[in-house]
Specification:
A hairpin with a 6-residue loop joins strand 7 and strand 8. The chain has two domains: 246 residues, no CATH class; 338 residues, no CATH class. The chain has 23 helices and 16 strands. The protein binds 2-acetamido-2-deoxy-beta-D-glucopyranose (NAG) (12 copies). One 2-acetamido-2-deoxy-beta-D-glucopyranose binds next to loops. The site of one 2-acetamido-2-deoxy-beta-D-glucopyranose (NAG) has 9 residues, from helix 6 and helix 19. Its EC number is 3.1.1.5.
Length: 641
């Protein structure tokens, strides 16, 4: 890490901003929530029930319109892509996807994209590109079109950067999302992820980085002045906003007076033209919570996870924030996030960047001691925040939300008597793939395409995220969620080499248990030099690196040159619950596919030119670290050795 000048607010005055304006820049103003009277009939809570939960009216309407207006055409287009690669699909596959068995026979597909910092954002994007029917190469590979056919898509941590940037930018293609388009000719264009600028140290010059630090901290001051606690998560939000929210491009990234995505709200995604025409899967972002009254004996301690599996998992969608977990089973309107009663309503709190930041807020993991925290790459930001906006006694290492659920579910809900919620990275309980929203029974998800770029071993995924979800669903919330069987420990995962290729879980289960298509970042296509296992602490990628990762990921997701039947096998898995609904028998190539790709399938000799990269001894302690600051990681390791 480059030494960093800690410049304080003086620098902004020195650069020509009058002192009175410091903290009231355009970005600071746009980042500040507003307070006003609640609209007539305002309802703070929606209770969802505990076993087969109810959806919000907004979500129900979106899903039903997407299913009737968009998905029949999307499935047909996907089917044509698969058929072009394989002409011996069983007839039920075509009849289901062509709509010949009626609307209720279509599969309901959810895609989940994991945490793991930039690596996960890039790997997830590469997989989505392979599923994107708009890309002719993906269409010709026989995998394109699944993205268009999905009903839901969820993301957490690095996956939330990918998902949120994608939907707020109005669902561009992946190359455009990563590298930007039209931003120099049209200020409304999208500047891309700007991955070649480090998230925390965008310049190579310590003085300029000091100016940057000061700018991002200053941008959260007005929110504090308006009566809301601010923490490192707000500062992180302002850093992430420069990459994963509209408003920044390579020409203006250095401009400290720019808005840089402040004011762009998660609820506003509802106003993008793709969302308004039901043209994308319904997006959901996941975050964990820490609480003073949590039961630490329910942590997966051998994995070093900080959040007990019993803590509620929160989800953010365009309409609502809350939890389907039976302990809370309550939601609040997204547009009024920050509100805690029905008379005074807050708006503008649901900044898209703050939600990305909450889902990837793992600085509490570096807070082993204050010294370690201060020596992490976020250390300068903690110090500057503490100096600029003193908040004595405030915990600064979590994302702080006025608790909309104060007084709800007393006795079961652990934060019932807390004025504020402390949200953290969605993977801190070990569930680094955001599967939970897709297991909500009313959502009726038949099949989940789970993208896993967790750093377990050698920065590859080893499957432990699935074990964590199995634990939570089986041991804690069996009445609310159902999850297909996965191995109960890592040795079984390793013995069967389940991360050396895509694997189907739940082949023998029945609805409402979904079938899971597991797409691990766990192997290298035959003969290639591995490029997708970069460290989670890498916060800067050249365009060439991103492109190389996209290209390798494309081969991993299409299995081009490895298994020519894979696109057909994927289609067999996608329709399998729908097949059961119409009482058809699995047959033909689908039988062969299930023998090959199912966990527990009869043909375990998956001999197709990849090898698992995770069979080496695991580094259990580090498995949950979705994104640990580099300096803290070094100290943490030093302490452990
Ligand atoms: C970029 O601008 C050109 C010219 O205005 C337009 O045709 C094109 O659709 C734009 N690209 C995107 C991705 O919006
Ligand atoms: C972000 O910018 C894109 C490209 O100009 C635009 O289509 C989209 O509507 C914007 N998103 C929001 C939430 O304003
Ligand atoms: C969507 O846009 C309309 C018209 O500009 C505006 O009135 C409405 O508040 C916006 N909704 C959201 C959720 O941003
Ligand atoms: C904490 O969890 C453990 C394990 O599930 C349980 O035995 C114990 O009773 C719990 N403690 C409290 C205070 O709920
Ligand atoms: C998760 O499951 C494994 C295997 O069944 C078990 O060893 C572990 O204790 C479980 N952890 C929790 C927190 O339930
Ligand atoms: C409602 O919440 C606001 C804070 O947003 C608070 O100032 C006000 O006193 C509360 N009103 C009631 C009636 O509790
Ligand atoms: C914040 O500043 C106060 C006053 O200088 C100091 O006592 C405290 O230790 C600082 N806290 C952190 C987390 O740096
Ligand atoms: C570090 O963690 C402790 C214990 O949870 C907490 O009291 C403290 O506020 C945290 N430090 C910061 C800077 O957030
Ligand atoms: C949940 O309820 C919906 C309608 O409210 C129903 O269609 C669905 O079958 C139910 N699912 C389960 C698993 O009970
Ligand atoms: C389609 O995907 C391939 C493989 O990653 C990529 O090389 C190509 O640029 C993409 N095409 C477009 C138009 O995005
Ligand atoms: C699934 O069922 C098939 C056929 O009954 C059986 O051979 C296979 O072992 C089962 N797999 C699992 C994981 O139970
Ligand atoms: C098992 O799979 C391998 C690789 O796909 C294939 O070569 C072999 O023929 C299969 N064996 C059986 C019995 O299906």
């Amino acid at each position: 890490m480059a030494p960093r000048a800690l410049l304080g607010l003086g620098i902004l005055s020195a650069l020509g901003l009058p002192a009175a304006v410091v903290g009231q820049t355009a970005a600071a103003r746009a980042y500040t929530p507003s307070v006003g009277a609640c609209p007539d009939g305002f309802s703070l809570h929606r209770s969802v029930g505990t076993s087969n939960q109810t959806l919000s009216p907004g979500e129900s309407a979106y899903i039903s319109s997407r299913k009737s207006n968009i998905l029949p055409g999307a499935w047909k287009a996907y089917l044509a892509n698969v058929q072009a690669t394989e002409n011996s699909l069983p007839s039920y596959v075509a009849s289901i996807l062509n709509g010949e068995n009626g609307a209720s026979a279509y599969p309901t597909l959810g895609i989940a994209t994991s945490g793991g910092g930039y690596r996960a954002a890039i790997f997830g994007a590469g997989v989505l590109n392979a599923l994107d029917g708009r890309n002719q190469t993906s269409a010709q590979a026989g995998t394109g079109g699944l993205l268009q056919s999905a009903t839901y898509i969820s993301g957490l941590s690095g996956g939330s950067w990918l998902l949120t940037s994608l939907v707020q930018a109005d669902f561009p293609m992946i190359q455009e999302l990563a590298f930007g388009y039209n931003f120099s000719s049209d200020s409304n264009g999208w500047g891309g992820w700007l991955a070649s600028y480090d998230l925390l140290e965008p310049s190579d010059d310590p003085v300029e980085d000091g100016v940057y630090d000061t700018a991002v901290v200053t941008e959260v001051k007005s929110k504090h002045d308006a009566g809301f606690p601010v923490t490192i998560a707000d500062v992180w939000a302002r850093a992430l906003a420069r990459h994963f929210v509209n408003g920044t491009n390579s020409d203006n990234i250095d401009d400290i007076t720019g808005t840089h995505g402040a004011g762009l709200l998660f609820s506003q995604i509802a106003n993008t033209s793709t969302f308004k025409t039901y043209g994308e899967p319904f997006p959901v972002v996941v975050a964990d919570t820490v609480s003073t009254s949590q039961n630490n004996s329910n942590r997966i301690s051998d994995e070093g996870d900080l959040v007990p599996l019993t803590n509620p998992l929160y989800e953010f969608n365009v309409y609502e924030f809350g939890s389907y977990d039976p302990v809370l089973a309550t939601f609040t309107p997204m547009q009024y996030l920050g509100t805690t009663n029905t008379s005074v309503c807050v708006t503008g709190f649901d900044q898209a960047s703050f939600i990305e930041a909450s889902s990837s807020e793992l600085f509490n993991e570096a807070n082993v001691t204050t010294e370690i925290l201060m020596n992490s790459s976020m250390g300068p930001f903690f110090q500057l925040l503490n100096q600029t906006i003193p908040e004595p006694g405030m915990e600064l290492d979590v994302a702080t939300y006025p608790n909309p659920f104060y007084g709800v579910g007393s006795g079961t809900y652990l934060d019932s008597n807390q004025a504020y919620l402390g949200l953290v990275d969605g993977g801190e309980d070990g569930e680094t793939i955001p599967l939970q929203p897709l297991l909500v029974k009313t959502r009726g998800v038949d099949v989940i395409f789970a993208i896993d770029a967790t750093a377990d071993t050698n920065n590859y995924a080893d499957g432990s995220a699935l074990i964590a979800t199995q634990n939570r669903t089986m041991n804690i919330y069996p009445q609310a969620y159902s999850f297909p069987p996965v191995p109960t420990d890592m040795s079984a995962f390793n013995a069967q080499d389940l991360t050396s290729h895509p694997t189907f879980f739940g082949c023998n289960s029945t609805a409402p248990t979904p079938l899971l298509i597991y797409m691990p970042n766990g192997y290298t296509p035959h003969g290639q030099t591995p490029v997708t296992n970069t460290s989670t602490t890498q916060l800067k990628y050249s365009d060439a690196e991103v492109q190389a990762m996209f290209d390798q990921t494309f081969t991993m997701a299409t299995l081009e040159g490895i298994d020519s039947q894979w696109p057909a096998c994927l289609a067999c898995a996608v329709v399998d619950r729908a097949r059961a609904r119409i009482n058809a028998q699995r047959s033909g190539i689908c039988d062969t596919c299930f023998a090959t790709y199912c966990y527990g399938g009869s043909n375990s000799t998956w001999g197709a030119g990849t090898s698992s990269n995770t069979n080496a001894a695991r580094s259990a302690t580090l498995s949950s670290f979705a994104l640990l600051p580099s300096a803290a990681l070094g100290i943490w390791l030093a302490l452990l050795m």
